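Lab notebook, bench 4. We co-purified these components, and the gel suggests they stay together. Before we commit to crystallization screens, I want a quick structural picture of the whole thing.
Request: model the full complex, all chains together.
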Amino acid sequence: MPGKTAKRLTKPLLRVLAGETLSRQPWWLMRQAGRYLPEYRALREKAGDFITLCLTPEMAAEVTLQPIRRFGMDAAILFSDILLVPRALGQRLSFENDGPKLEPLSENEKLRPLDLAMLAPVGEAVARVRAALPGETTLIGFAGAPWTVATYMVEGGTSRDFHRVKTYCYRDPAGFAALIETISEATLAFLSLQIEAGVETVQLFDSWAGALSAAGFERWVVGPTKQLVAGLKQRFPRVPVIGFPRGAGLNYERYAVATGVDAVGLDTSVPVNLARERLQARLTVQGNLDPVLLRVGGPPMNQAVAELRQALGAGPYIFNLGHGVLPDTPPEHVAELARLLSN
Amino acid sequence: MPGKTAKRLTKPLLRVLAGETLSRQPWWLMRQAGRYLPEYRALREKAGDFITLCLTPEMAAEVTLQPIRRFGMDAAILFSDILLVPRALGQRLSFENDGPKLEPLSENEKLRPLDLAMLAPVGEAVARVRAALPGETTLIGFAGAPWTVATYMVEGGTSRDFHRVKTYCYRDPAGFAALIETISEATLAFLSLQIEAGVETVQLFDSWAGALSAAGFERWVVGPTKQLVAGLKQRFPRVPVIGFPRGAGLNYERYAVATGVDAVGLDTSVPVNLARERLQARLTVQGNLDPVLLRVGGPPMNQAVAELRQALGAGPYIFNLGHGVLPDTPPEHVAELARLLSN
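Here is the predicted assembly.
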């Protein structure tokens, strides 16, 4: 990164994403806008439907801003959903109590061309949030990584063993590669829309990266992520990309070396000493407090936070959880965390 | 291991567990006795109930032997269930369509002393299988590792985020340690019963090892496993122990170094090149074909099998899957695998 650009960065999160080490590490939380907040639950009820909440710009913006007002994280993450992409490719989507439901895609079923207009409200939400955010606060956009989005599209929801989507990969790798390519192009368009509207960095959620064999990880996680990052860098060379290959385990190092991401999100299971030696030596790391510790609060949380900062604070580090905030987390624990991280 | 003992070993699986490298690698499959076999489904229906099937010695023995007759694996694994241990500690257990159900344990709830008589039929099944097995075939016993058994006991079944059991760990580590100790003692008794009845090696299934932070992994997986292995070695110094910390990811190396197991089972996600360098250099490895490839069969399976044997065959290696056989796997694919592995 040229010195001139680096000098212009003032927001803590962007400075760390550019490789700086800060003594007060910036922080945000995955799913920081969500059910643990009473003001979120009120708006969610008013919206009636989860998709309505995502696609009504004033509501999505409000929900995005709620945790920032309360806790002053260093970054807001746009309130949205990774499955808006398959929806804009024509797949029917609904949210039920036990998670998202899609009409499962058959092998080689044709998708319609991306309807970018269906995603336009997301851009409007971004613009609203950006206008309302404090000057020090970074706005993060996001999308699902192609593999993870494909799992939902083929399985029709979450899965225990991913046997449908993996059978597709193995039986018809060329057909599956075409699906991944379609998702990748749509994702590039979706993230470009977000960046043009004002997000300053993007995170790729690869929540089911851990379901693959190492060969599958190489082909369906590393390859498409690398291509997507290259596409983003070509259009937006100054926008950093955070990759979160949850459950990657022993494949984390390969992901960090090969994909071109600027930062890697560590899931809860990653040992911080290994993360320091094998990952942070190459790129910025983010994570990985156990969300259960945020739910529990008190001395166990405080001690784990101190240990994390001790282990990773000597290099470029963004404090976060290792997975999303649990819905029954007391907001007071997040307030306590904010105090701990304020110096 | 003293030379005299090593010389007496003739069964391929036991030779590899003692550290030998064989040109024809021994194999067995996790959940090789199970729903993909029509003869299993017939007996399961006759038994009516899953627990009856486990605890009726002639039935459990028959189900254990079914895959050996068809496919001639190098090892039979006793048909049983890891949750027989909580049941023998007084917890009510049933099996429904979506998996096991236990009455969830409250924090610091007292368990009754282990009723070893409830597990006696397992010993009878072992004796029957041992008497019927071909001379070259090893009989494997097993139990759940204490952490994994504790997750079922506290959550009441399988879980998505393990927040109940992890909240217990964090809020009351001393109380949780007492629960783990109770489970460990019961597990040692259960495995001793199996060994005395005739199993020649045991596998510890730690299916939910990946749900923990590295600190939790150290305390609740590494510590109790080490203690259990030491207890087994004291009583049965010649019985090798296989550990399977599924999802351990970057914690695999620590597990291999610190627990004292003779062999480690690799889950599907583990890259074989790293397994060779970091794990097989220290101990025997076992795994890790994607069960979906066994379901798919044909050239994709054949190629992956050849690659696995190529990558790990130069050291002590037991061929297996990275997780259990999927219920809708065609038995012909297992027959094809047996042919591939016959030389």
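The first strand of chain B starts at residue 75 and ends at 77. Worth comparing against the SEC data before the next meeting. Chain B has one domain: 3-340.
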